[in-house]
């Protein structure tokens, strides 16, 4: 396979054109059936998949890559079973296509219908975890789009076999195999080419760390949905139930600190700072959280480090938390709208007035009252799937489920109407 | 004013930051009232506006600019009255904000509400017509966003006075004047800077010719809605009512040939080519339309020029039409999906099966059955306004009314829910 790759350079434009042709057949095809065939194929070919993955892991280990990163790359029987189960779940979700979104009749009798349709060709640019290869492909397929995948170079062997298994399965349900394709080259110029392929790709979704996302957004000439970065805040108001507040803050910070909807900064109203901070910060320290804070925080709870401007701006993605005492809701809103990434923000309060103001004035995809920021997630939202979490305002905000990766068209039916 | 501009270079980042601050107040402000004040101010200051516009027109005439282009630039009493009337109409439209889009309750009791909210800061990059300055500003304001305007250099004097009038009017309704700002410089580097201002501008909408649109889409690192290009087709099927078909084709081509929803290519089923083409092409010729066609068209109707590949690709925006005889609906769909710009496409047919297939398989924002493509328009659709027509699939397709220039957020209310 390596030889084939070397002797025939990868043809991205051709790949995208084949994806376009394949995409035409998908809206009316048996997409559910195809996903069930894919789940079967992944399990049937488990030996081949795990062998390829073991090669990827071994090559990466030889480079001295840390265990945590190796773990992200690794597949095993259990994980593969989990991937196949997830594919079957997506097959069982309601079809996001052919939905009637709106309709009305113009004064001249022309009937307008607005219906959901596929994007066409979706590009995915992502890192490491080979499960994303399958996740992204089946979500795109279920939403009626062909998908062109570009995973990371260190997962290329795994991705080749996963994509081969999916492609083999598609014709068994009558779908064209070119509905799923891999950019089978580690050369980064194909990412640039994909991001410039206006007219050939309808949407690119990046998924990975901040530098990947930034590269895609800065480079792309095709439509992109920016995902991922979450510098999320929790504000504990003067009227908050402090016992519940402690539990929510702990959950938002430590339940899974490496994800985008975890909290990175705690804001506490000055009226409860002396009561609340010692207990919550002690609890956080016991959970292994490194703390930095403003002067007022440090005065109340010695041992907290000095928070710099960089701390307010940082998505730690780990067991670190910045803490600030604030004097008013205005100060809170200003802080969040200045440093936040418009992902998930929470107020813990007993005041319905403050809750409303916070939800109104804070600019974010998901604004919580008395709940953990960790609920911004396609599965928690009940979407049954998630291809990422949007942090831009164009098209979709927050969790991207199946409905969010479709678009619409207007169908207009008349009897010879002309414009006057 | 010229001196001030020269001595203090224009500060785009500062402009965008002031726009952001102003935007925070808009969702709950008296936006209707502000629009009515703007309409008044435009008429109160008509002498000043028309004088500035006369200077722009004189400067342009001195360059030898053709009359048609001068006309696009020119304002007079009647046009200014029309602009003010349009502003009042927008003030009377339903508020696109605070709309309840969806709501549900999660199994843990968390209530999710999805509501429409403003984008925040919208940038507009456009050409010539000074009426766009007012149109774009009031649509953005009505949709709760601050707007930063970049018109063409040759309309800068007009735009300065129009923007000054709007800014003066805003505080009279309690709105911050920085909700409307002008990029008061002809220097193109400010366009590049605007298109790169991630985090400072939430959306840029280009409006103008293909080269402007392409420049914006290729350059932008911020979210953009691509608008405008319309290579639209009309297909006359074997079962079409040929009398109505003739009227629709004529309307789609000649009623206003310079706009994006006018037809550029006529496709005719071979079964009716010999009957239909001589009459419709004669009618079109009498209306001043220059015709090019495929060999079969030219065999039926002598005098038609040779259509080249370039003709199928061209949006003429004038009294020109490409004509092609086709053998099947498959050929029609292939032609349109290959050459079309996903704007507006029409089938004229007596077959409901062919109508459905055409609407299903043709990839465009608006797909018509038995009606002119000219109806793809915010006013015709009943949106009451239009800031452009989207030809991309991300966010909104087709006419962009007030609802299409809003986004949404999720509001989640709980009682201390944490994630398990």
UniProtKB/TrEMBL annotation, chains A, B:
It is found in: Cytoplasm. The keyword Cytoplasm applies. GO terms for cellular component: cytoplasm. One of its GO terms (molecular function) is glutamate-5-semialdehyde dehydrogenase activity. Keywords: Amino-acid biosynthesis, Cytoplasm, NADP, Oxidoreductase, Proline biosynthesis. Gene3D superfamilies: Aldehyde Dehydrogenase, Chain A, domain 1, Aldehyde Dehydrogenase, Chain A, domain 2. Pathway: Amino-acid biosynthesis; L-proline biosynthesis; L-glutamate 5-semialdehyde from L-glutamate: step 2/2. InterPro entries: Ald_DH/histidinol_DH, Ald_DH_C, Ald_DH_N, Aldehyde_DH_dom, Glu-5-SA_DH, GPR_dom. Its main location: cytoplasm. HAMAP family: ProA. Catalyzes the NADPH-dependent reduction of L-glutamate 5-phosphate into L-glutamate 5-semialdehyde and phosphate. The product spontaneously undergoes cyclization to form 1-pyrroline-5-carboxylate. Belongs to the gamma-glutamyl phosphate reductase family. This is Gamma-glutamyl phosphate reductase.
């Amino acid at each position: 396979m390596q030889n084939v790759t070397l002797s025939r350079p990868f043809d991205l434009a051709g790949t995208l054109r084949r994806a376009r042709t394949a995409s035409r057949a998908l809206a009316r095809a048996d997409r559910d059936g195809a996903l069930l065939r894919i789940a079967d194929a992944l399990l049937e070919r488990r030996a081949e998949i795990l062998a390829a993955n073991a090669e990827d892991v071994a090559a990466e280990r030889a480079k001295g890559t840390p265990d945590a990163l190796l773990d992200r790359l690794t597949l095993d029987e259990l994980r593969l079973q989990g991937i196949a189960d997830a594919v079957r779940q997506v097959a069982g979700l309601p079809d996001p296509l052919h939905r009637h979104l709106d309709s009305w009749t113009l004064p001249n009798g022309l009937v307008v219908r607005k219906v959901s349709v596929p994007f066409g060709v979706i590009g995915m640019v992502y890192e490491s975890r080979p499960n994303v290869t399958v996740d992204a492909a089946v979500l795109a397929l279920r939403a009626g789009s062909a998908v062109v995948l570009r995973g990371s170079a260190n997962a290329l062997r795994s991705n080749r076999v996963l994509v081969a298994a999916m492609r083999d399965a598609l014709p068994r349900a009558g779908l064209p195999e070119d509905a799923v394709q891999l950019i089978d080259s580690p050369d980064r110029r194909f990412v640039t080419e994909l991001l410039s392929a206006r007219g050939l790709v309808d949407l690119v979704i990046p998924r990975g760390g901040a530098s990947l996302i930034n590269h895609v957004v800065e480079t792309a000439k095709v439509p992109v949905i920016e995902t991922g970065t979450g510098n999320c805040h929790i504000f504990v108001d003067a009227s908050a139930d402090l016992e519940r507040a402690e539990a929510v803050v702990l959950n938002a910070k430590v339940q899974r600190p490496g994800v985008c909807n975890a909290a990175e900064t705690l804001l506490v109203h000055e009226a409860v700072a002396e009561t609340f901070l010692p207990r919550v910060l002690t609890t956080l320290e016991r959970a292994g959280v490194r703390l930095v804070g403003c002067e007022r925080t440090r005065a109340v709870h010695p041992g907290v480090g000095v928070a710099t401007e960089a701390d307010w701006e940082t998505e730690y993605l780990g067991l670190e938390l910045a803490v600030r005492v604030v004097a008013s809701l205005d100060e809170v809103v200003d802080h969040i709208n200045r440093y936040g990434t418009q992902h998930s923000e929470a107020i813990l309060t007993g005041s319905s007035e403050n809750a409303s103001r916070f939800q109104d004035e804070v600019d974010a995809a998901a604004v919580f009252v008395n709940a953990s920021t960790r609920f911004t997630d396609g599965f928690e939202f009940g979407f049954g799937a998630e291809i990422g979490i949007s942090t831009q305002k164009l098209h979709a905000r927050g969790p991207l489920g199946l409905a969010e990766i479709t678009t619409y068209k207007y169908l207009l039916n008349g009897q010879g109407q002309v414009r006057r």
